[in-house]
Design goal:
By secondary structure, the protein is α/β, with parallel strands linked by helices. It folds into two domains: 40 residues, no CATH class; 393 residues, Alkaline Phosphatase, subunit A (3-Layer(aba) Sandwich), CATH 3.40.720. Strands 1, 5, 6, 7, 8, 9, 13, 14 and 15 form a nine-stranded mixed beta sheet that branches. Helix 7 runs antiparallel to helix 8 and helix 10 runs parallel beside helix 11. The longest helix is centred in the last third of the chain and has 25 residues.
């Protein structure tokens, strides 16, 4: 049963149906929905809806220096005891079984099979005023240790690449959830209306595990998804204007499309896909000029290109990604995700065998470019307003299942991920968390991934408990049940 007014609106939303229904059940259902919305809006007081302009810049909840975030994701699982954790005890045990450490779960399962300890083949030395021990694989990054804050013994909820990659990049090991960048853009919007607020530059050799789901918007409005920026050629596929169309003609065409979409949206309020499509047309029109300029690094001084390693085949790929990240920060882009590593194979950080050769190859690709990025941001006064995060999806084991002779590797370890942060209000030289003598698991209370996410949001001026979204009748947030801000690394 419908009121006469409903005849003019043949397509009804669930709420329209309940509102127009004559029976009391509809009114009760509507009351419940409205109560949920009111509760959601109260929790979302810090992130009010912005009709028609979802990317409008918004103020931080609490004062933090960082206005931008660059998230460096190393696909495959970086070996922490060959990079940032000095564990001399492993060299003493090389080729022997692991001592009884009382571990449980999947680590215990791995240790029930034949295995041998693998000592790091790389030299370690202390660096900087903080005396941070660093592997010889990272000579350039070692010079920046006093700008870095390390977090050790981070726990993820899964030891497999797919779920663990989701966990670190979206806060959940299951697909369909918004990425960290989507949450930050949802909370803060963007300062540049000519570029997406959330840009992704993946490894030029291919996509990471889970592909575009790593930077997806999940259940957040579609406007908050990451935009893949190609580092060469046409920066965004299908962005260029057809040669047969002038700018004025295209502007008229977009205006007509916009009008039709707005009429369509008027009958379907709250359809985020339609709102995002309208915004996307306008953004695409503006990006036709802005995007090509950003990826054109020909005007950069030769000294800057060398700083990022663009003059070396080993470093040029990730070096260009890092240089583009700096250019995006300069142009007000809120969140940039750089990915090094392709799926699971020779171009990833997943070294079940030949860990020595693999770590030499992968560290050589990123050490100079990352150090160059930090140096360039700092000399331009941008590091204070840019949070830089180094992450991978998991740590590695101090042993290999099988023999440590020949060219051994390392297994997955969801109990010992190591990350670092720099810039903004990060306390350079600080350390949080600790792993045991074998880099097998944390000592004391483990640091969970949701604590990392809570800390990232805090350093961007957001509160993880107040950054909420009502989805499917439930208040959702990046940290799910909530995280603890790691105060040890905040200045």
């Amino acid at each position: 049963m419908w009121t006469d007014n409903s005849l003019h609106h043949p397509f009804q939303t669930r709420r329209d149906f309940l509102h127009r229904a004559w029976n009391g059940i509809g009114a009760l259902g509507l009351g419940g929905l409205l109560a949920d919305d009111l509760r959601g809006n109260d929790l979302l007081a810090e992130v009010p809806p912005v009709p028609g302009d979802p990317l409008r810049e918004r103020l931080q909840v609490h004062g933090r220096k960082a206005k931008h975030c660059i998230f460096l994701f190393m696909q495959g699982g970086v070996s922490q005891m060959d990079s940032f954790e000095y564990k001399p005890r492993l060299r003493e045990l090389h080729g022997q079984r692991m001592p009884d450490t009382g571990v449980s779960g999947e680590l215990q399962g791995r240790l029930t099979f034949p295995h041998e300890c693998v000592g790091s083949p790389f030299e370690f030395a202390p660096h900087g005023q903080s005396g941070r021990w660093m592997s010889s694989l990272f000579p350039h990054l070692a010079k920046k240790v006093d700008d870095l804050a390390f977090i050790h013994g981070i726990k993820t909820d899964n030891q497999n690449h797919g779920p663990s990659t989701y966990h670190v990049t979206t806060g959940s090991q299951f697909p369909g959830n918004p990425s960290v960048g989507s949450w930050i853009q949802y909370g803060l919007g963007t300062a540049n209306q000519n570029m997406p607020g959330y840009v992704v530059i993946q490894d030029p050799r291919g996509a990471p595990v889970n592909g575009a789901a790593v930077w997806a918007n999940g259940y957040l409005p579609a406007a908050y998804q990451g935009t893949l920026l190609r580092d060469k050629g046409v920066p965004i596929l299908n962005l260029s204007r057809p040669h047969s169309l002038t700018e004025a003609e295209q502007r008229r065409e977009f205006d007509k499309i916009k009008r039709l979409n707005e009429l369509h949206l008027a009958a379907r309020p709250g359809a985020s896909e339609l709102e995002a499509r309208i915004s996307a047309y306008e953004l695409a029109f503006r990006m036709q000029t802005a995007a090509p300029e950003i990826v054109d690094v020909s005007g950069e001084p030769e000294s800057i290109k060398k700083l990022y390693g663009l003059d070396n085949d080993k470093t040029a790929g990730f070096g260009r990604q890092c240089l583009l990240a700096r250019r995006l920060v300069e142009r007000g882009v809120r969140y940039t995700m750089l990915i090094n590593g392709v799926q699971i194979g020779g171009d990833s950080w997943d070294h079940h065998g030949k860990v020595k050769d693999g770590m030499i190859k992968k560290s050589a690709e990123v050490d100079l470019p990352v150090a160059g990025l930090l140096e360039d941001l700092k000399q331009r006064g941008l590091l204070e307003e840019t949070l830089v995060v180094w992450a991978s999806e998991m740590g590695r084991t101090p042993f290999v299942n099988g023999s440590a002779s020949g060219t051994p590797g390392r297994e997955h370890n969801s109990y010992a991920l190591c990350m670092w942060m720099a810039g903004g209000n990060v306390k350079g030289g600080a350390t949080a968390g600790k792993t045991d003598d074998y880099s097998l698991r944390s000592v004391g209370e483990p640091i969970h991934v949701r604590d990392i996410h809570a800390t990232i949001l805090d350093l961007m001026g957001l509160n993880d408990e107040k950054l909420n979204y009502l989805h499917a009748g439930r208040i959702r947030r990046l940290t799910d049940i909530g995280g603890h801000v790691i105060s040890e690394i905040i200045a």
